[in-house]
Amino acid sequence: MKLSLVIALVPAVAAAQPRPGAILDDLAATHAFEEVAISPDGQRVAWVEKVIERGRDTGRAAVFAAPLDGKRPAVRIGEGRHLAWSHDATRLAYIDKQLYVATIGGGARKLTSVAGYLTDPAWSPDDARIAVLFAEHAASGGGAIEARPPETGLIGGEIHNQRLTLVDPRSGAARQVSPAELNIYEYDWSPDGRTFALTAAPGPGDNNWWTAQLYTMPAATGAMTVLHKPALQIALPRWSPDGATIGFIGGLMSDEGATGGDVFTVPAAGGAATNRTAARPSSPNTLTWLSPSQMLIAEYVGGSSALGMLDVATGKLERLWQGDEGIHTGIFSNYSVSRDGRTVAVIRSDWQHPPEIWAGPIGAWKPITSLNAGRRAAWGPAKSLSWTSDGFSVQGWLLYPRGCTAGRRRWRPRAGRSRRSIRRSSRRWATSCSCPIRAAATARARRSRGPTSRTSAAATCATCSPASTRCSRPRRSIPGGSGSWAGATAAT
After folding, report:
1. Does residue 414 surpass a pLDDT of 80?
2. Which of 33-47, 379-393, 406-420, 469-483 has the lowest mean pLDDT?
3. Over the stretch 162-196, which tens digit does the pLDDT of each residue have?
4. What pLDDT, on the 0 to 100 scale, is given for residue 484?
5. Cα separation of 127 and 456, whole Å?
6. CA 198/CA 15 separation, integer angstroms
7. For position 333, what pLDDT does the model report?
8. What is the percent of the chain where pLDDT is above 70?
9. Rounded CA separation 80/87 (Å)
10. Cα dihedral 186→191→192→193 (10° resolution)
11. pLDDT at residue 483 is higher than 60
């Protein structure tokens, strides 16, 4: 595992740049996608889209679905989040405070009427049950990005753990299965539908995710058995197709949903965990079993994301695709894989292109939506930089202002200099930065009637030089990484 910090360095913005308020308004009006889910057969894609009204995010989200062949337009199913396709690809479950199920070609039906917070539905392998995480009488799930209501009375006196709950898709009857004293973070059905793999810790859930362990639990009894106690954090438990092995991501992670580390496997019957990607200079964040010996993994590679096929036994990975954009599950999940691994749906976005839904074979995706067509970035090009700090590898994006291009520097000599000195200095600085920062410095100097020289420019644009054709003086750093148009939109 390579521990890396991803940041973006933003050069100082000149007067010619768009004002921050205009940029924020434009980002707020961008159509943002929160989630994407491809059907198991790879024929349809569903997504969650923020509802924008009068150029503003309403806080609501709508569920859409469309066929990949493009023969029929996208259909709005309802409002909600947390999508889950049935294994026969005919029904879509989602959460809008309660659990709903929509039939493709038909309407949606509300299944539950419970008091509390529901999230993360998943159909059983035979589609006879739907599992959900349910925090009874809770206003939220207490995750890293969940808003919590103010506490009153005895602070910390009420603990609302998320419990794994089974719902009958026909009657809507619900049954809580996991113990009340444990908070369930993530889970997966075994291939035979009899057992769950879960990550859990004693509540409260938003306090103890960092100490969660891997458990197994029979669906019939709810008896929890510790399978693995990680040294650091654990995420994304997934059963192998033959039911013999459970894979997961383990490593140093800041928060629930900010997944990254190494791929581990552990025997489902018990035993030691094995790191399958220990030698890789990257951070896997998602795994999908395609066979008992192969996984499709998504990983962070510097400031890029990559997809590859991992041979579980040897640790050898065949790179299938890599690009300067973010592909991951967890917080703001934007990636979904069909049952056979041949078709993938993604929410694609990079520094210059706003988010849209794409789907198709890996690396040969085609756009499904075009809601942000014509939008232009309010910033200039981005350049990936890498360096080391305190023994760690650090990657960052240098984000230039819009219009920062190569050109000649406008230069005026100080009074009293000789013609020879002027010619020598002119030749030295002829090829340099003519970006808006330098232009603004020149304008300020002229307004103040002071000398406009290379020294006055350097005070504003410190790293302009004959070898640099763009301004690269960082003013501040912001959290970022690949796909940061979508990240900036989410932050607003």
Report:
1. no
2. 469-483
3. 999 999 999 999 999 999 999 999 999 999 999 99
4. 59
5. 71
6. 53
7. 86
8. 75
9. 20
10. 30
11. no
So what's the pLDDT on residue 470?
Answer: 34
Supply the pLDDT for residue 456. 33
- What domains, with CATH codes, occur in the chain? 7-146+158-391+483-491 (2.120.10.30), 406-472 (no CATH)
- pLDDT, tens digit (0-9, with 9 covering 90-100), for 309-325: 999 999 999 999 999 99
Residue whose entry in the numeric block shows the structure tokens 């924008």: 52
Under 8 Å between Cβ of 241 and 293 = no
Cα-Cα-Cα-Cα torsion 146, 163, 201, 187, nearest 10 degrees, comes to -90
Cα–Cα distance between 385 and 6 in angstroms, integer?
A: 10
DSSP code string of 286-302: EEEEEETTEEEEEEEET
Beta pairing class for 392-399 and 245-251: unpaired
For 52: left if phi > 0, alpha if psi spans -120 to 50, otherwise beta; the answer is beta
User: To 10 degrees, the CA torsion angle through 365, 350, 307, 85?
Assistant: -60
Q: Give the tens place of pLDDT for each residue, 94-119.
A: 999 999 999 988 889 999 999 999 99
Total residue count of the chain as it appears in this document: 492
**Chain position carrying tokens 């589609």:** 127
Helix/strand number for the chain, H first, E second = 6, 34
User: What does the buried/exposed string (b/e) look like for 355-382 if buried means 16 or more CB atoms within 10 Å of the residue's CB?
Assistant: bbbbbbebeebeebbeebeebebbbbeb
What does DSSP say about strands 406-407 and 432-433: parallel, antiparallel, or unpaired? antiparallel
pLDDT for the residue 100: 98
Angstrom distance (rounded) from CA 115 to CA 123: 22
* Spatial CB neighbours of 396, under 8 Å, sequence gap ≥ 6: 6, 7, 8, 9, 303, 384, 385, 386, 387, 477
CA angle, corner 488, sides to 487 and 491, nearest 5? Answer: 90
Tell me which of 414 and 70 has the higher pLDDT: 70
Whether the Cβ atoms of residue 243 and residue 268 lie closer than 8 Å to each other: yes
Q: Is 23 exposed, middle or buried (0-12, 13-18, 19+ CB in 10 A)?
A: middle
Tokens of 33: 């996608």
Start-end of H helices in 183-236:
205-208
Radius of gyration for the chain, computed over Cα atoms and rounded to the nearest angstrom: 26
Tokens of 68: 């990949």
Structure tokens given for 429: 């600085």
- Tokens representing 121? 């539905």
* Residue from 21, 36, 97, 27 nearest 367 by CA: 36
The dihedral formed by the CA atoms of 425, 426, 427 and 431, expressed in degrees to the nearest 10: 120
Distance, in Å, from the CA atom of 150 to the CA atom of 387, rounded to the nearest integer, reads 42
- Residues 198, 50: Cα–Cα separation, whole Å: 30
pTM (two decimals): 0.80
Lookup result for tokens 């050109």: 407
Amino acid residing at 267: P
Q: In angstroms, rounded to a whole number, what is the distance separating the alpha carbons of residues 400 and 243?
A: 50
